[in-house]
Amino acid sequence: MKHGLAGRTVLVTGAAGGMGRAEALALGAEGARVWVADLAEEGGEEVAARIRAEGGSARSARLDVRDPAGWRELRDRIGREDGRLDGLVNNAGVSHRFGIEDTADEDWRRVVDINLSGVFYGMKYTAPLLRGSGSASVVNVSSVAGMTGYFAAGYGASKWGVRGLSKVGALEFAGAGVRVNSLHPGLVDTPLLRSGPDDFVDESLRSVPAGRVAGADEIAEVVLFLLSDASRYVTGAEMVVDGGLTSGGLYHRITGALREGGER
């Protein structure tokens, strides 16, 4: 329990699978009181049950992050059972790999509602509980798509929105001792990454200096840091965890192509 999170109450959205699952399990192992929230009730309860079986404390809750009423209901339940919230991980998100002209109107609304409005509602409706902690931390999961130009219209726009909204939250909540940061993972080995064609991942890896995708547990470690007192002076920041993907930009790809050309 190296992050000092034992006894703290933390809510993770989208926690039934992928990065959210890894984050919830890591928090449970740290001794935190974990709220496992997801639209997939069965998957969320499976994660919560595993945390309990391993000696931790966890409860599951069905949550559609697009629904303000659902957020209010969950906030009230956490208030009754725990009285405060020490950490919020707005992790729930969906992928959509289409450009402006090819994005259907309904897909635009769906992606923005889940990826961006879900983060807004999370901070808005849990704010009273976060303020009550006195030293709470919010981690809003964005993406490297929120750090650079990206080919997917709805996804890129929503992740840039999360980045900007996190800065608004950092300013607004600082006086209450609540920190807000955005997390920008690169390629992470989750079902979300693998939801597209295999050649998308293979081609993307050509631009990652580290030469591999991240494990969900590696992202969870950074989330624990941002939730812990070790990051107590970090707020309004973008934490990029991408194996160097965005550090070289276009030039990494160009120099790689030149090396390959020289070998032929």
Automatic annotation (TrEMBL):
SMART domains assigned: PKS_KR (SM00822)
Pfam family, one: adh_short_C2
Segment forming the signal sequence: none
Keyword Electron transport: no
Keywords on record: Oxidoreductase
UniProt KW tRNA-binding keyword: no
InterPro entries for this protein: KR_dom, NAD(P)-bd_dom_sf, Sc_DH/Rdtase_CS, SDR_fam
Ranges of residues in domain Ketoreductase: 8-181
Protein name: SDR family NAD(P)-dependent oxidoreductase
Record organism: Streptomonospora nanhaiensis
